[in-house]
Amino acid sequence: MFATTATLAAAARSPASALLRARRRAAAAAAAAPLRVPGLRARVGCRHIAMAAAARAPADPLPKIHGGNGLTLFKFIVFQGSDLFFRSVISNMEKVYLSRNPTAKTILDLVRSYDGDHICYDHLAFRTFGVNGYGINSLAEFFTDFGYIPREELRFPAKKLRALWFSPPTNDGYSGTGTYGPLPRIFISELLVDELTAQSQEIIHKYIKTSGKGNKHAALASTSGELTWEKPIYSDFHILSSLLTFTLSSLLFLDTRESEYAAWTLVNGYALNHATISTHHLRSDIRSIDKFNKFVEDNGFKLNTEGGILKVSPDGLLQQSSTVADSSLFTFADGITESIPRSYIEFAERLLLPQFKDLQDEEVKEHHRRDGFEVGNADKIFESTSKDQLTRKSA
């Protein structure tokens, strides 16, 4: 499975293109037992999955999901130059995120002041519109080109969402912190636009059409904080975030909140939705997420209470919490200025897998801990940008 003489010769002729080709081959070859996403079929010689031919399949195809480790070849082909470029990109994504979200910046500063410079990111998360190429793949291709591997699809039927998370190519030998420390997992979700009301679909399609080929430059948009589509008008944002439905039985208008996710994405685009501090990488008492949550609250910040402050996976090994999103004033295209939700910061503790529970602290590596994500946890973390949580924050 290692690079052949022909591959090395091609790399000598064109290093950049050879590197990308090698990564793509590695992503397909590395997994011992690739998982299958229902309704999707693999395309030969490609790391993407093509959607099975069916009129009912509304969303864009997802990248091919892999199981297994699959890191050895990546260690062989990932060069220092490309790694530094990749880190500069995610660092710029972080800069936009911190410039708009004072809560995240303040908490990071407080943690460094209390614990030292030991912050590592568990994952970075993004939101997208799952239609016309603007969904998960629009951002995923940037990460897979730099060695990230698609791992598992998660579904959120009530929210009309699906998500895919990606593992980094390697995390050996990194002694830095933040975006220059161990590479974070990547979590990208998408709104299943075709499952929304006709009115909401029309609004989203209207703005997607103004984007040109903006989906091809999603990572660039995330580093700049700019929308790839036209700035929306307030009434469209309001319709997505709070759709009123008339019911004959009660002769009342009910607030059904069509999709607060859609409203958030319309005004924030590909901006980083949240970064997640890995609490177990800290050195002081706040490496325990319970103590970390108390530390955050004692410093005057409110945490997302949906389903309880601490979100725990069924196996008890993935424990997460998050702040409520910051808000800022936004001037819409029609001149109306209103407050909109921005982003939030999350915290995660991954406990040791049962087979590694007897390891000494100095022996523990990240792969000894619970990996992946949990639908029940993530479903509640999504609420960090909801109207209910934002209103509670200001109460």
UniProtKB/TrEMBL annotation:
Molecular-function GO terms, alphabetical: dioxygenase activity
Cofactor(s) listed in the protein's UniProt record: Fe(2+)
Keyword Cytoplasm: no
Pfam families to which the protein is assigned, alphabetical: HGLS
EC class name: oxidoreductase
Segments passing through the bilayer: none
InterPro entries noted in UniProt: HGLS
Catalytic activity, EC: 1.13.11.93
Keywords: Dioxygenase, Iron, Oxidoreductase
Protein family membership: Belongs to the 2-oxoadipate dioxygenase/decarboxylase family.
Name the record gives this protein: 2-oxoadipate dioxygenase/decarboxylase
Source organism per UniProt: Paspalum notatum var. saurae
